[in-house]
Amino acid sequence: MVVSHPIKLEKASSQVVDYLLEEIFEGRLRSGQRIDIINVSKILEISRSPVREAVVMLERDGIVSSRPHRGVFVEPFDADSILDDFEVMGLLSGVAVARLATRPDPEVIAELRRLVRELEAAGSPDRMRELVQEILRAEHRAGGSRRLLAQLRAFAGYLSWVFRVHSGQPPGTSALAHGRVVEAIAAGEPEQASHHRVEDFRAAGKAVVQDLARRGVLAEGSPRDGAGVSPAGAGSPPRV
């Protein structure tokens, strides 16, 4: 394992989470493989404590599992689990945008439209991810309750890394998807806003499954060639 960027001392456990997710979703750490805590701490040049904290965070999300007297292992990833995650995230986000559409705020809508225009003109995947993150955060803050926001945050880090390995959507696809939701909000159409969001996340989940299958990341029994998975657009990378 080779670290692709230096680890800052601040928020070290979150940095370790990012590193391990990168290793997993790039296929360098495989399902069932043991994670060497000591080796990770050496590679990242940090103590073992934040590595253990990161393991607890990943175990909570079902990414890894700790086995007494044996160590920490990468949990199997299957297509259905990933699709379920995207389905749930889409439904939760759909609640937020639907609520926002029932009480449209002109200032929020103006800001969302500005961000969508920037997304249309974005020239790099990194910038697109940043803008999508801003759009979703603005929508969720304006339309979500504290409970809903907590649920959305639970998916944020994991799904953002899943999406980071998938960047093959056609130019403009993400801007079009987010633009449809924003215009439904502006028109005061909660059902339409929610419908678009759920459909976008479903399409995104299918596209991600195809990419992960090609990378050999999915567990045995998952579709390896995208069988049964629609090649429809990639949707938009969700990060709360």
Give an overview in words.
The radius of gyration is 19 Å and the shape is elongated. A hairpin with a 3-residue loop joins strand 2 (about 65) and strand 3. With about 240 residues, the chain is mostly helical. The chain has 9 helices and 3 strands, in the order αβααββαααααα. Helices cover about 65% and strands about 5% of the residues. Helix 4 (about 80-100) runs antiparallel to helix 9 and helix 8 runs antiparallel to helix 9 (about 190-215). It has a 3-stranded antiparallel beta sheet with strand order 1-3-2. The two termini are about 30 Å apart. It has helices at about 10-25, 35-45, 50-60, 80-100, 105-120, 125-145, 145-165, 175-185, 190-215, and strands at about 35, 65, 70-75. Residues about 5-10 and about 225-240 have low confidence and may be disordered. The chain folds into 2 domains: about 10-75, Arc Repressor Mutant, subunit A (Orthogonal Bundle), CATH 1.10.10.10; about 80-215, Four Helix Bundle (Hemerythrin (Met), subunit A).
